[in-house]
Structure formats: C-alpha cells, structure tokens
Amino acid sequence: MMRARRRNRLLAALLVAGLAAASLPGVGQAADEPDLQLELVGYWDPNDDRGLHFRVTNVGTGPASAGEAHVETLSPPPANVQTPAYPALEPGKSFAFK
Questions:
Q1: Is 61:89 a contact under the CB 8 Å cutoff?
Q2: Could you say which DSSP state residue 75 is in?
C-alpha cells in the first residue's frame, strides 16, 4: 500500500510538473502578467490514494483569466481524465480542487 501510494504521488507530481510546464507561455513573464503554478497538495481522503487534491495559484503580478486544468491519472488503469475549472485569480490568490 505504501509503495503504491509513493508511486502514485510520484506519478501525480510528474503530471503536475508536465501540466505546469505546458500551461506556461514562456520561461519569463513580462511585468503585470499572470503566472500560474499548479501543485499537488496531497490526498483529500487519507484512505484512498486515488483522490488527489490540487491547487492553482497566480504567482504573477497581473490577474489571470478563468480557465481549466487537464488532469490525467494513468495508473492504475483505466486512465482517468478530468478538466476541473478554476476562476479568475488576482495575483497571490489560489483555488484548490479535487
């Protein structure tokens, strides 16, 4: 169970890293532009290692428009795709989703 949980965390972390990298338009941001950070917060149910909890944060200097994230778990099969929506975010504001 612990080994599977560790593997799932690693997989989720890789997915988050891939999502974060894919969602950024460039490496450096100009002044007064949004810069979104997507992170794995943990599990929303400690008894179920499939229930992942994420947070998107605007770490830029300008407001970010509403959008949606693309989260895909690959293991265990079958793949599970979700596209949770997040609201417009002012600089420094976050939105958590499961």
A1: no
A2: S
Nearest to 86 by CA among 19, 15, 12, 21: 19
Measured CA to CA, the distance from residue 61 to residue 90 in angstroms comes to 8
**Statement: the pTM of the whole predicted model exceeds 0.70:** no
DSSP H or E segment with residue 68: strand 67-68
Q: How do residues 20-70 score in pLDDT, each as one tens digit?
A: 444 444 445 556 788 899 898 888 776 766 678 899 999 999 999 999 988
- pLDDT confidence bin for 90, thresholds 50/70/90: very high
A 10 A CB-CB count for 68 gives 12
| Six-digit token string for 2 | 């612990």
CA pair distance 75, 6, nearest whole angstrom: 12
CB 31 within 8 A of CB 60: no
Q: State the residue for tokens 């599990």.
A: 43
